[in-house]
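I'd like us to work through together how a protein chain folds, taking it slowly. We need material for that, and I hope you will provide a protein of your own picking. Go ahead whenever you are ready, and we will take it from there:
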Amino acid sequence: MMHSSLLTSEQAQRLRLAFDDDRDAETFFLRLERYGPELLDSLRAVYLERADGLMERLLEIMLHAYHTRPADLRRLDEARLLSPDWLQSPRMVGYVAYADRFAGTLRGVQEHVDYLDALGVTYLHLMPLLRPREGQNDGGYAVADYRSVRPDLGTMDDLSALARDLRGRGISLVLDLVLNHVAREHEWAQKARAGEDQYRDYFHLFADRGLPDAYETTLPEVFPDFAPGNFTWDPELGEGHAGEGGTGGWVWTTFNTYQWDLNWGNPDVLAEFVDIILNLANRGVEVFRLDAIAFMWKRLGTDSQNQPEVHHLTRALRAAARIVAPAVAFKAEAIVGPGDLIHYLGTGTHHGRVSDMAYHNSLMVQLWSSLASRDTRLMEEALRAFPPKPTNTTWGMYVRCHDDIGWAISDTDAARVGISGPGHRHFLSDFYSGEFPGSFARGLVFQFNPATGDRRISGSAASLAGLETALEGGNEALTRLAVQRLLLLHTVILGFGGVPLLYMGDELALTNDNHYADTPEHAADNRWVHRPRMDWALAQEVQDHPDTPAGQVNAGLRWRIAVRKTLPYLHASIESRVVSSPDPRVLMLRRDHPLGVLLEVYNFSEERVVLPAYVLRGHLGEDAHDALSRSAFHLTRPTVTLDPYRALWLTAAEVNA
């Protein structure tokens, strides 16, 4: 019997007639019973009296997608329902790449699946590949069509074939889904400009500056250098009633003038995206990276980020996906503070029911902060500030990504360790742009905001960690330290508990692409300095010459990935917990697994650090085993010495007996 608040008996009977197979019907109804109430509750919270009508529409969309879901994906659905923690497994290792810069086309990516498989990858995030607007498109995040692929990359059939090949190797395909905005050239925006009332209501449009000016008083600027403000005048925008367009109006454009923010207050927008998600899921997409999710709901008098409706909308999208394609997971791209971030994984009635995964941006920022300062106390405070996440969710951790690094350092955290938040952010910008005396880094300042003094940083992991400077100077000692820094940073993300995300080229220690500006559409955006093309010759060379810097990084990463996959302690249902370190240069994390304790120890300095052995003994007993070096530690001795940038993954010796 169906949930009484969801379907009447007549509706249930009508729905059952849509099935030829009783087993299919039973499966659909069971999922609807499980996830339908969540879907309807969130629809009612956002859309009030319009929710029931919207639910009827969504049932039709879900039925069609369910009937057209391929058999192999249906099998994956059943497998994932039996292993709901698949995304939390220590075997999950991610790789993030632009398809064109990795291999030219989707078919090219398919030709290199062996490379990814050998590296240990089980999760492949291909950066925006749905058809964007021509010319400037914010790296592909200005989508003109969610139902076609960039023509230079291939076709939707190529995408399906790639997903099928990856799935056969146990690799999940991850795609970006831009939720906050579409390109000005998208069909919806074109119809809005033509004056069609239905599509005008897909966007936030204004006849004059009255409301935009009121909103602007509390809105931040995302790209103050090249896209100041949050609203754009469009001379082609009509006033409504098709055929009367062209008088002009203001459009909400948070990111760039050519990216029109969507009006999620309109239930038609949600229905469109349920259809888009299910269509892509039936093409084989297993994880959706929900881009710019924090900006979806607008509210006057606020910064229009992290509004409660965002979490209801995400829960509704997730519930609809679970009914049709429970193999699918959501990852929130919410680069916000810990207090806001936890809501994207779910709190209260949303606990564990919003996104399955979220980026741990703070960990990335703190890694680079500790590397520059040789001091982990701020990282300790920042990690302690995180509320516990739902046990069925996971973090996505990364050393670098396609974006710049914004110094999200909390003034409160900084004050607790006796430093100035603004002062430390200034130091980090100086250090990683190479302006600070003695800096090893080679980065570029991105989006300097003179009003706040904020300076974000672009640069590849290898260049920021000092490899570019060391290689240019021909200094073997500095080169060795740069390699050790890169391996340390990656060891932390591999051991933190979640899905470690390797950014394309970092496994080869690729340095900055200092010719990025030779491409005219990239010249104004120095983030392209860390978006190089894959060096396949180097990928072969590191196999033949593992003693080179790139070879050492590659071999070190492969070993760490292999070790990670053998350690059940790294299951993401368990959190890494900071434990006090007697030396500020050393970070210590403890993971309490049913098999025992895993203690992670990281030296963030180029100096040898001597720790009193009792600090480790208190967690592990008298004898310990390091999984990374496969060596024994006798903690009855007075001290333990950590070499520069050394990492230890320690368990009690009896566990490994």
About this structure: The CA atoms of residues 214 and 300 lie 7 Å apart.
